[in-house]
């Protein structure tokens, strides 16, 4: 294009824009809402990430941490830490049962045994206020214990009371009101108890074979290279099973959760932008339909297609930029305004300010969406000929744009999806979401065309019912709002329907199906000399229907076929940290071997391994592979000789990795048991077991289910808000579609009035039209939402699926109600317009 042509297009665009934004308010609103949602989510995510980075050392409890499973550090490992750190603090964490001395109530607690250097960073706050060292020292000859207020309230304790922790006596000294490194431990099943590490020497709580983690927090010299130290530690102890964390990611569990949830919410926001894109396209088409005489006049005066295309692209670009800017302002302001509330709700630090990176991503998504949904109608507008001045040639432009524009559209779509995959950090989820949105748009577009065709066939069947006949005739007309209504409302309802089905099925799996099959309690830290007595008491209780037990060790898979395991299967969750490991001489009850053979009974040869078939397939394992497992600092290499089914869905006992008994029976270890007891038998059984075996720890499966349910409720609420924003965008698109067709409805109403129709009949016709389209959009969204919910539950969560009909029917009813209300709200002007004025303006 020549500079002269560009200047001409710019002049035309400037003059057109002098007329204001009439016709583009919906375009601006759709873009602003979609961009604001994504910008707000991105800003909150950035605020949390900044807070975690700033408080990384305090949340971790030091500049860096080395953690070990089932054991404490060796002399060599301690020496390495002493050489590189200015100060080191040793912390042991485990679960145990706490009980008031002389009482019968018991509660699960997450114990942290600390040394005199704890905490390296931050300060522990107690009530009543006292130095931490004084509280841990205790009183009256008993070591001190500090407990979370929830635990104190649950057991009706007060400072000064004596308690037993796994059978070891302590004196409750204070309530723990602030723990600087509370989030470093990740998910826990019980409230916190702090005790001195020295108070546990010689007790069964940290005996060989019990389940505990040792953590070594290090204060490093200023300017230390954390990545270089991490590599040095892993090189010095390559197969020790140590795990490294540092202040760059002080609470990885929380940061991973925030990252995944925000990525999902951004993808929901992109679904909202897709709905907004429909509104953008509809607004552009409506605007250009009004401008057909202007475009035809310009063509008559010699304007080229390129000039026409560019002039209107500039106009829409300016208005889209205004909508994006408005969305960025809203997206940046909302987190700042909500900062006091969010700070109080979040259990982690967050720095709320303006984050240019998050806003830039939202602006990029908005610009690509606007351009993607604008090019198609613009390219068709450029095809308008001068003959449109003399006859209704505005619709003569071909349905599809020229092939270069198709290629550009596909390139923009690929750029939008690629950007979302890159910035979200969840490429696979992004691709599936994009594919689902694209498929939903195609299905909804086909449904709209089908509704139009069906309406044509119904026209002869509704004779004698004027309002219904007029509604069906309007839907079957070539220029009607069926396509934008079904696309916008249908896609918004599809997102909402999918979220409703997923949420309903996950709640059902957690709160209804799982407890029927799950054990009532898990019992851990059963010593070898206690297992027979434990089984005798549990199995002899008439209220206990089943008891499963197995040896329990924990190990880290370090090598596969002699190569580092992370290199062989870098994406496998099995290799992230340590895993439960057990041994068996014969296949446990219910075991189904799917490949290979089980070792013979009494086998005493080289170690053999039986591995979970599903996880083995995901890792690319095959029979005959060798695997090295680090257990208690010792490497054990075995040959994979069988695969078997392992089902974790019923919360039963299952081990990814089993070895032959000869390989592991000599290692220090404890036993784990799952108990299936009735609610009436559960409490007396646990009291008796706690009295006879005070060191064991009982973990209530129902309590764990309640905590997971609470987490799911939080996720469901967040996603529901995102889906509601998508639905709101769809509602705006509905209004835009109704406004763009207002002139046609005014002419239709004027003709009907002239022919003797009453306002009531015309209103019923408009209401029936809106209701039919809303019900159609809701029905399509219902089917798409059910299919989407099934896909997520089946392929992502690997759970059963059933249609949650209350949620599903609410979607259909919501689609009908929303479109009906929008149609009635916008029927006033067509009904109140005078027929003579309307018909005279069309002459």
UniProtKB/TrEMBL annotation:
Q: How does it sit in the membrane?
A: Multi-pass membrane protein
| Localization of this protein | Cell membrane
Mind telling me which residue stretches traverse the membrane in this protein? 264-288, 309-338, 358-379, 400-423, 429-455, 771-797, 803-828
Alphabetically sorted, this entry's keywords are: Cell membrane, Membrane, Transmembrane, Transmembrane helix
- From what organism does this protein derive? Pseudooceanicola albus
Principal location class: membrane
What name does this protein carry?
Answer: FtsX-like permease family protein
Q: Where is the ABC3 transporter permease C-terminal domain?
A: 268-382, 724-832
Q: Which Pfam families match?
A: FtsX (PF02687)
Give the top-rank taxon of the lineage listed in the UniProt record for this protein.
Bacteria
Which GO cellular component terms, listed alphabetically, does the Swiss-Prot or TrEMBL entry include? plasma membrane
Supply the InterPro entries for this chain.
Answer: ABC3_permease_C, Membrane_comp_ABC_pdt
